[in-house]
Sequence to fold (232 residues):
Amino acid sequence: MNDCRNRSHSGEAGFSMIELMMVVLVIIVLSSISIFYLTGHRALYKPDDQSLLITDLLQEARQRSLTQRETMRVEVNITRGTARLIDENTAATTDDDSVLREIALFDTAVVNVGPRPANILDNPPEPFPVPNGTFVPSVYPTSVGDSVGTFRFMANGTVVSAGNTGTGNGAVVTGATIHIWSPNAANPANSDIARAITIIGATGSIRLWEYDVNLTTTNKWKDARRTGTYGG
Fold:
């Protein structure tokens, strides 16, 4: 009698091989779905990630120029896919320029940095228009010949252009708008998600913008109210 009862309990305990396989199959399916959505979700944040990294670099350049009383240069290098913060040290020479920090830009198939996408006609609505940043062959030894957007933060709080020599001769106070956007799969000249950074030449202030297609206004840029770790 006891043997029959034991055999009955042993038959009810545990799982069959088919049940275990079904559980494993459900786990695999759920994991695959989660990875699919997480990957897509991360792609949505790439322009934000890139714009915040660049904003941090610009904010650090501004802070250092004011506190150290030296010219700090930011080079957004489209050719090499990097952005650098460079201390110019002695203004009259180029052999003592030192790279303080460098970040890697995302692949252009994922995020573009530089000119405005074709499907956006306006720049962010600053009180005074801020032109698009220019990306031209660099005249600085650290990046000579590369396509670079150069922003030089001066000790007096202004931001000036690259100038026409490696020591910044001919530089003028100027603002710039840097566009950061993910290309559309069907038409890479257009953007799916767009962000922008404005740099005000006269004050050195930096602001991050978000393009919102749902806005009813003609200009669909809105202040993102976010800055880098070095403040706004």
User: Anything to note?
Assistant: Residues 17-68 form the longest helix (52 residues). Confidence is low (pLDDT under 50) at residues 227-232. The helical segments are 2-12, 17-68.
